[in-house]
Amino acid sequence: MVNPHEFFMSEALKEAQIAADQDEVPVGAVIVYKDRIIARGYNQIERLKDPTAHAEMIAITSATSYLGTKWLNETSLYVTIEPCSMCAGALVLARINNLYFGAHDPKTGASGSVVNITNHKKLNHRINVTGGILRKECSSILKDFFKKKRAKRN
C-alpha cells in the first residue's frame, strides 16, 4: 500500500517536472482536501514575468477558487521544497492546516530552515509542518535543473 504522503508528494513532483519542462525552477505543489487533490501549481515566474508566481501561490489561488472561500481550513499543502517567506506567509493567511514539503531550503526556507513563519508565536495561525517527504527525489529534480543550467552557460 502506498503511503498517502508519498503519493501526494509524487503528484507535487509531477507539477515540478512540468515547471522544469518549461525551463522554470522545478517546484510543484498540490493542495489536498478530504483526501482529494483540489488544486495544483508549479512555478511560472519566467513565463508570467511575475516574481510571485510560485507553485504554492498558484495552488492557493486555485484551491480558494475551488472551495469558494478565502480560508483553506482542513487542507494540506504538499510542495517539493520548503516554502519561502512569501509563500509561508500566504499559507498562514490562508489558514492551511498542514504543510508537507520535500527538500529543506537552507537559503530561503521559512518553515524552520532560515526563519519559521509557519509557526511564529506572534502570528494568529500556526501550521503543522512535516519536512523530508521524498526528500531525495525533491532535491534531485532541483539539483539536476541547476546543473543543466550551469552546463549551458559554459
- Globular, elongated, flat, extended or rod-shaped: what is the shape? globular
Structural class: alpha/beta
Major β-sheet profile: 5 strands, mixed
- Sheet-strand content, in percent, reads 15-25%
User: N-to-C terminal Cα separation, in Å?
Assistant: 45 Å
The averaged pLDDT comes out at: 96
- Strand tally is 5
Radius of gyration: 15 Å
Throw out a few tags for this protein.
alpha/beta, 5 strands, single chain, 42% helix, 5-stranded mixed beta sheet, 154 residues, 5 helices
Topology:
Layout: H1 4-21, E1 28-33, E2 36-42, H2 45-48, H3 55-67, E3 75-81, H4 85-94, E4 98-103, E5 128-131, H5 135-153
Parallel strand pairs: 3-4, 4-5
Antiparallel strand pairs: 1-2, 1-3
Helix pairs in contact: 1-5
Describe this structure in words.
The structure is a single chain. The protein is about 40% helix and about 20% strand. The longest helix has 19 residues, at about 135-154. It has a five-stranded mixed beta sheet. The model has no long low-confidence stretch (mean pLDDT about 95). It has helices spanning about 5-20, 45-50, 55-65, 85-95, 135-154; strands spanning about 30-35, 35-40, 75-80, 100-105, 130. The chain contains five helices and five strands; from the N terminus they run αββααβαββα. It is an alpha/beta fold and about 150 residues long.
